[in-house]
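We emphasize that the prediction below concerns an isolated chain of 508 residues; any contacts that depend on oligomerization or on bound cofactors are therefore not represented. The input was used exactly as deposited, without trimming of termini.
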Amino acid sequence: MTLDKPPITDQLNLCRVGIDTYRENVAYLHRDCEIYRAEGFQALSKVEISADGQRILAVLNVVDDPNIVSPVQLGLSEQAFLQLGLEDKQAVRIDHAEPPRSMDAVRRKIAGDRLSAEDFTDISHDIADKRYSKMEIAAFLVATGQTGLDRDEVLFLTRSMLESGDQLNWDEQLVADKHCIGGIPGNRVSMLIVPIVAAHGLLIPKTSSRAITSPAGTADTMEVLADVKLAPESLRHLIHKERGFIVWGGTAALAPVDDILISVERPLEIDSRGLMVASILSKKLAAGSTHLLIDIPVGPSAKVRKMDNALQLRKLFEFIGDRLNLHLEVIITDGRQPIGRGIGPVLEARDVMQVLENDPHAPDDLRQKSLRLAGRIIEFDPDVRGGQGFAIARDILDSGRALEKMNNIINSQGRNKHRIEPGSLTYDICAPAKGTITSIDNLQMARIARRAGAPMDKGAGVDLFRKLGDHVEKDEILYRVHAEFMSDYRFACVLAQKDIGYTIEQTI
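Result of the prediction step, given as a C-alpha cell string:
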C-alpha cells in the first residue's frame, strides 16, 4: 500500500485509538510521519501533546499500520484521549518531553541512599503529572523494595501520596473506616461492618477498590447488590442520610499516585511493607477518615505469614498514623483459610446477606469476625466503654437493624434490579481420601476462582463446603467451582485438578 507523504508541519490531527493502556498515557505515530523523522522521536520516548491550553505527557509507540494511525495523525490511547479532553481530528502539537528531574532521587535510592521529604514530594508530583513511564515507576518500586524504606521515609511517601490528589472532608470529628491488608479470599466483612456501624450512628464512608489480583474486591461484591459508581458530589448527601455507604473509590481522585503505583506494582508482585503502609494510609486519609481499624490476617498462605512480621507491621502502621493525626488501631486475625463459604462476587454477596438476615445457614466465621471488628470500631465512640462494642454490634445485627440499614444503603445507592446467579457451569472437587482437613491454601483457592472468571464474571467463583478441622469421607465434596463460560470452566477445572488446595490428614 502506497502512502501519501504529507508536508512537514508542526501539527497533527488527533485520533482516538481504542486501546486500554491502564493508567499509562500512550501516543501513536506512524513511522512515515514527517514529524517523527524530523524531530528524532524514538519508540518508548516521552512526548508532550498540547492544544488549546491543554497538555498531557505520553509514552510514544511507533505504528506501521495506516489503519491505526495515518502519517498525518497522532493517536492517543483511551486514557490519554480522555485526559487531554479534546475532540477527534482536532489539530495538536507534539514535542519532546523534559525528563522528570526527580529521577535523580530514584537513582540515588537505587544506590541505597536515604531520601528526604522533598525527594518524595518531587517523585509523587512527577508521577501524578504522568512524567514517569511504567519502566521508570518500576525502577522506583524496585528501589524502595530492595533497599527498603525506614519509617521516616514511609511517612514522607505517605504524606506525598496523600497530597497528590483530592481530599474529602465530611465536617465531622469522627469518621470511621476499616481496612484489611488482603490475601484472604471471601473476607467480605466490610459489607457487614458498614451497616452495623452506621446503624449505631457513627459515620463510616467506605470507598473500596476493585479486585486486581484477587477474585473480588469489596466494590465488585457490592456491585452485585447496588450501584457503586457514584460521583463524589452525590456522596455527601448519601453519607448524611444513611451514615454510611460502600462505593468504588475510582470515581474520586484520592491519592492518585497510589493508583498509578499499584498498576505497576501488582503485575510485578512487588508488595513491600513500606509501600503497602503508604498506599493504605494515604487512601484512607484522602477519604476523610479520622479513625481507622487495620486488620492483619496471619497464616501460612496469607500475605503476612508469621506473627513477628505482623507485630512489626503493626508498629509501622501505628507510627505513621500517629504522625498524621490518624487514630489508628491494628487487630491481628486468623488468616489460615478463606472467610465465609463464597469466593467470587455473587457467592460472597450471598454470604453477606445470609449473615444480615440471621439465616441459620449463614457462615459463622464471617459473622463472628464481622462482629468483632465492628465492635472495635463502635468503641471509637467516646460514649461506648471499652469491651462493650461486640455486644452492641451483636444486638444491632440480631435485631435486624443492620439488615434494615443495608437495604437503605442499597436503595440510596441504586439497587441492582438484575438478579445475578452463580455460574451455571459447575465442577465439584471431592476429597481424595478419608480424613481431617488440616490446611487450605488461600492463594490456590483465589487462583481457581479467578480462572473460573471472577471477578469479571460476577457469578464465577468457588463455593466451599468444608473448612479447617472438618472430617471428610473419601469422594465427599470439598468445594464447587462455578463458571459462566466454557473456556473459563476448563481453565479452572485443570488448575483445581493439579492442586485441589486442601491438605487432608488421612485416617484409616
